[in-house]
Amino acid sequence: MRELIRKGLPRSIQVLFALSALLLLLPLLIAAGLAVKLTSRGTFLFRQRRMGRHGKEFTLYKLRTMYTGNDGPLVTASSDCRVTAVGRFLRKTKIDEMPQFWNVVIGDMDLIGPRPEVPALVDFSDPVWGQILSVRPGLSDPITLSLRNEEALLGKYENHPSFYKDVLQPLKMKGYVRCLEQRSWRSDLKMIVQTARFILIPGAVPVPNNEDLQLAFPD
Question: How many structural domains compose the chain?
């Protein structure tokens, strides 16, 4: 199994950045948490097990965007009725992902890297997964930015869990490996700036179609 050892920003800088972000975003997170708590039953924080570096599971933190007690597919489409009204706004703006800066601080994640997958959707027999899991997962990366409107794309397919597993996930995995092979501290900085831009200007990233996917993930 070949590990992808190219490194991005030093951990010390990432932790400092993540702590600073949490402090700056604290008023927004408090307001968003109150909105979640006051408009639907349950806690404002959502915890989910995800797959981390070297196949070690960790608890990922998000603001809760769904009604409690609603089981369903592991992937979420834009039409998913489990998502609350407040949750739709939080997901669209990515505010729900901001508690993951704490995951960066405690060492579960990096600022930039492949998005962490739920364990049930990880195939350890696939050597590509071995490469992806040789690094920490991240808050964002080029593939995540390309698929920023992934939920809208999944919403085009009636059987969106199958589309995700059979089509979209393999394309993402291929893209993750390609990006990790080219990773450097400069590319990490570039991704941080681009991620901030796309959060501030949501309309900058359209919903991709199949042709866009082939262009974004060439063979």
Answer: 1
